[in-house]
Amino acid sequence: MRALGKLTRRRFFRITGGLAALATAALRPTKTLANEPNYFEGTDFVGKTRAGRYRDFYINYWQPMRRIDPAQWSLTINGLTERPATLTFDDLKHFPMQSMNSRLKCVECWSARATWTGFPFSEIEKLAPPKLETVGVLFHCADEYKEYLSLDALRHARTLMVTHMNNAPLTDEHGFPLRVICPFKYGYKNPKAILRMEYVDRVTYGTWSKIGPYSPDGTILPGTDHPLEFGKQPRRIPGGEIFDY
Ligand SMILES: Nc1nc2c(c(=O)[nH]1)N[C@H]1C(S)=C(S)[C@@H](COP(=O)(O)O)O[C@H]1N2
Ligand SMILES: [Mo]
């Protein structure tokens, strides 16, 4: 596991320390990536990788995790609800599905576009209605990643609880069996490999906004993007979801 964990960002932060990490944050995306091997292909584990076929759509995981077995997986919805619910993998198949094409934009500069298929958050609310004081959901993921999204963001027409990417089930790398796609927010607000959704009554910091210079809101700001499909050629973006390319 030490070798597998070698290149996780957690370790990067541990090694460099908070302030130094902030200072070099802008340099990170282009460093070391060209020869970075894929440690996870053909193993029981999955983690951060940018090599091989993932050159066109990077994979971020907070720490390496064991691949999820759909027979063992369940989704718990709890916190501020009088009707907590537990879903199995088969339950996911009964939701009304819809698809959208959108760009996932990581705050570390890169972005990539895909077609995502899934169901609206309203389906979750029907099963486990949030109490009145609920303002958002804290997502708990299989790699111990945590991220918060407001009810407003989750109820937005462009936000989906995603099970499929480019017309195939999500791969372990991209968050099988369930992730959020919220295309007007940075990638870190798109939690993968979700195990639990917890209704909470206050804005909660997620894994990245706790340690990095990243806002807890995570709305994409005006700036520069480096889309992977276009050779990372810099493009100006106006903020919000990227529709232009
Ligand atoms: N469980 C989990 N979800 C996560 C992350 C993570 O580390 N763990 N990283 C986030 C970040 S920073 C980004 S940019 C996107 C990347 O999605 P991808 O790995 O499918 O490209 O996943 C987000 N969801
Ligand atoms: Mo990211």
UniProtKB/TrEMBL annotation:
InterPro entries according to UniProt: OxRdtase_Mopterin-bd_dom, OxRdtase_Mopterin-bd_sf, TAT_signal
CDD domains for the chain: SO_family_Moco
Domain Oxidoreductase molybdopterin-binding: 65-208
Pfam families named among the record's database cross-references: Oxidored_molyb
Official protein name in the record: Oxidoreductase molybdopterin-binding domain-containing protein
Organism of provenance: Nitrospina gracilis (strain 3/211)
